[in-house]
Amino acid sequence: MIQMMMATIGSPAASHAARGAPQRTALIWRKTVGFAIVTGGFAVVVAQALQHTLGG
Question: Can you give the pTM of this predicted structure?
Answer without folding.
Answer: 0.58
